[in-house]
Structure formats: structure tokens, C-alpha cells
Amino acid sequence: MPFQNLFSASYFNDTIIHTVKQLLDCEEDDLIMELYNLLVRPNRDFELRWHRDDVPPSASAEEEEKRLQEPAWHAQWNLALYDDDSLIVVPGSHKRARTGQEREADAYEKDMPGQLVVEVKAGDIVFYDNNILHRGVYDSNKARATLHGSIGHVAGGNARARNVLQHGTAEWVERCRFYELDEVMRHRAEMMRRKLVNMGKVQGGATGFSHED
After folding, report:
1. Staple partner for 63: which of 59, 147, 162, 190, CB 3.0–4.6 Å?
2. pTM
3. Percentage helix, strand, coil for the chain under 3-state DSSP, each rounded to 5
4. 142 vs 85: CA distance, rounded Å
5. For 77, phi and psi rounded to 5 degrees?
6. Given phi > 0 = left and psi -120 to 50 = alpha, else beta, which region is 189?
7. Do the Cβ atoms of 133 and 42 come closer than 8 Å?
């Protein structure tokens, strides 16, 4: 893959790792490789509905509260290579169940109470809890290349397996190699990759899905 070394280094570099350690209040040995991809400009305009990544919209208020009180066990981020305003969030909603108004709103509500359009400039990075109430709005006329990643904590167990392995990661992660990285990052990458492989073996693929669709 062109620029594979740069792509890998942008995930396993000291700046990302140290930030994740601070957010998760943990040591490097606790970290596990998760997801990393490049979000690009679509061929046509489209939007995502309001959602939380690991709480289905069918969840009751009690189910939401229970899930949201659990530790996140991950850090997720967007690193924009072009200016990007595709992400819309409701600040603070990762700490509470949806309000009645949020539950009754249209799935593609354009003016959710309290919403914030996350405007990042090229080179900016934003970390966020993926269970914050959020959606994406994508403009086919705007250049977009945003690196979207997550790193987990080994204590996440089945909760993180459900998020990560449902994307088919287990089918290819054992083939990943990081020969192009410097010695420090290569050692870090291999350790984190092995933990993800082991998580998949322990879970045995029976992780379930965060969303029915």
C-alpha cells in the first residue's frame, strides 16, 4: 500500500500513544491495537443517523444508563488531513441516556438540541467517546481525508471485542506486519497486534453486534 509506513507510524507514534495513556489512565502494556482507516469524500452526499457506536437505538433508558456507566476502555480520534466539519455531536451525551426529545427526534434530525458541529482544520486531531450521541454529514463537493482510529485497553474484553471484531478485523489482523517502522514503534505495534489476535481467539468470534444493521 502506498505510504504504508507513514500510515502505520501515524497510529503507533509517541504522540498518539501518550495521549491515549493519559485518557485511559494506564500504562503502555495495557494498550491493544484496534481500528484505523481513512475516511474520504463520498461520490454523493449522504448522512448517517444519530447513534452511539456501542449502544443500539432500541435500548431503553435503563439499558443506556447501564452501558454508559461502564468504563469506555478505549480512545477514539479523527485526524484531519483536510479541513473537516462532517462530525456532529451532542456534548455530554456520553454520560447520560437520551432525553425524551432525543428519543422522539427524526433519525436524521438536522437541529438536535445542543448539537455541535466539530470543525477541525487540516492537521487537527479530536478525541471523543464513541458512545457520545453523534452523526455524520458528508458533502461530495468537499475534499475529505480523515484518519479515524481507536486504541483499546486490555481490560475491555468482550465489550471492545464487540466493537472491533464485528468489522471483520479478525480475518486480516494476523497478517499485519510492521517491518517498515523503526525498532521502538515496531515492537509496540507487534505487542498491540498480538493482544488483538489473542482477544479474538479468547472471544471465539461470539461477540455479537452493537447494531442490528
Report:
1. 59
2. 0.86
3. 35, 25, 40
4. 10
5. -150, 160
6. alpha
7. no
pLDDT tens across 124-134, in order? Answer: 999 999 999 99
Sequence-ordered alpha helix ranges (H) in the chain = 4-12, 14-24, 61-69, 100-104, 157-165, 183-203
pLDDT tens string 146-183: 999 999 999 987 777 766 776 566 667 777 788 889 99
Report d(CA 177, CA 18) in Å as an integer. Answer: 22
The single residue listed with the C-alpha cell 433508558 is: 61
List all residues 6 or more positions away from 78 whose beta carbon is below 8 Å from its beta carbon.
39, 84, 87, 118, 120, 125, 126, 128, 146, 147, 148
**Angle subtended at Cα 73 by Cα 11 and Cα 36, rounded to the nearest 5 degrees:** 25
Q: Residue 86: in which H helix or E strand, if any?
A: strand 84-89
How open is the CA angle 79-76-196, to the nearest 5 degrees? 115
